[in-house]
Amino acid sequence: MHANALTPLGAEVTGIRVDTLDAPAVQWMRTVLAEHGVVILRDQQVDDDALLRFLKSFGDIQFTVGETPVSTHPDLNVVTNVGRSRPPRSTFHVDTSYVRTPPAYTALRAVTVPEEGGQTLFSNQYRAHDTLPDNIRDGLVGRVVTHVATGVTLTDGQESAAEHPVLHRHPVSGRTSLYLSALQRCASLSGMSADQSAETLSYLLAFSTRVDNVLRHHWAPGDVVMWDNRCVMHCADHSGVVGDRVLHRGMVSDAAAC
Question: How is 183-247 classified by DSSP, letter by letter?
Fold first, then answer.
């Protein structure tokens, strides 16, 4: 097993097969994910059964209510541009941050790769925290962001809002990241007026997603990509896509991920 570090985050991992992952490999992967945020596994050529086994080796599966499930594997959901008259919309975000225990990990496997475009972008939230001006970082200590659900249909009794510290200490690496999501999902920052909160959150999101803090992943057939939601945000680039783009996604609960 070897991890080749990328810049400004992420690692291409070799010597691991998604469909034959054992306990030592899982533990090693957790450490790599906690340090690098994103793991790229090339030439896997696996099916959804193998992807589910891979995910379950890290913990319990977590599904976002309102997403479109894979017809044969309802624990997974489909990410696609097929059958759409307009490209999907995506902004930098963390998956399902509006629940008290958001998923620790998300993984995508390439089902159909477009001829052009369709990259997935990732931001280094450790680096976002570490490079903030001291006065701004100090002003965030003890503050929480109220995350709310958007773009999904929920039923009565399902979680639709949760508070999370904006400065998040990662349980594996011990490092602090800037924990944010899309602006429409960040309703408020505690201890600030509505205008101050909106201005600060907008600044933090822009600071986190500046070009030099983002990894752009170009999909290839056989790719499986996994990331740690506790230290990265992600976003799909739907501009200039030529051809079908189909990915299958699964998430792992944080409850047993550590």
Answer: GGGEEEETTS-HHHHHHHHHHHHHHHT-GGGEEEEPP-TT-EEEEETTTEEEEE--TT-BS--EE
SS3 assignment, position 64: coil
**Model pLDDT for residues 144-155, shown as the tens digit of each residue:** 999 998 877 777
Domains in the chain and their CATH numbers? Answer: 1-258 (3.60.130.10)
Give the CA-trace dihedral at 35, 229, 113, 236, to 10 degrees. Answer: -120
pTM of the prediction? 0.94
Spatial distance between the Cα atoms of 162 and 148, rounded to a whole number of angstroms: 7
Helix (H/G/I), strand (E/B), else coil: 122 = strand
**DSSP per residue, 143-173:** -EEEEE--SS---TTS--EEEEESEEE-TTT
96: left (phi over 0), alpha (psi -120 to 50) or beta: left
Encode pLDDT of 103-143 as tens digits: 999 999 999 999 999 999 999 999 999 999 999 999 999 99
pLDDT classification of 258: cutoffs 50, 70, 90: very low
With b for 16 or more beta-carbon neighbours within 10 A and e for fewer, the 132-166 pattern comes to beeeebeebeebbbbbbbeeeeeeeeeeeebebeb
Closest CA to 107 of 156, 62, 66: 62
